[in-house]
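Lecture 7 notes: from sequence to structure.

We start with a single chain of 155 residues. Read the sequence below before looking at the structure.
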Amino acid sequence: MNLLPWLLSFIFPLCGTLGAIGITPPGTVDFGHLHLQGHSEYLAAPAGFLPAPGITSPAYNLPPAALFATLQAVALTLPRTFPLDSLPQNLQAAYVIRTPAANFPDILELAVVAEPDNKSGVIFYSHSIYGESDYGKNREHILAWLDALNAKVLK
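Now the structure, written as tokens:
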């Protein structure tokens, strides 16, 4: 481990851990009842979703189970991304994303939702464990996931 995460771990203990170690899995999340604080978090969801997302995610021409499986594959391609929780029966999963230098952990939670005509959409909720400002990192996490997903699905 680098020196910076070790030093930070005296103030922010999870900076001194690896992957998802020590982080509590969220379990089933009711995304429709998120209480957004307006800082250190970001939401992407299909059109018409409430609470209103910062990014509208597209509808994908895949049934929900296939989109969920694709998202699991996408997770394996993303740097510093570690599985935290998977609830395939609910089409939900959560991941820890670590910053490169300081090893700060953020959590990205996702859910696949059914759309008309056997299509599906995805909800991404990314939030920081530490801090009042994420300097746009949670939005960046979601954009990276959407880019990777779109590259895989919308070839």
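Strands lie at 41-45, 55-56, 81-87, 92-98, 105-115, 119-128. Keep this in mind for problem set 3.
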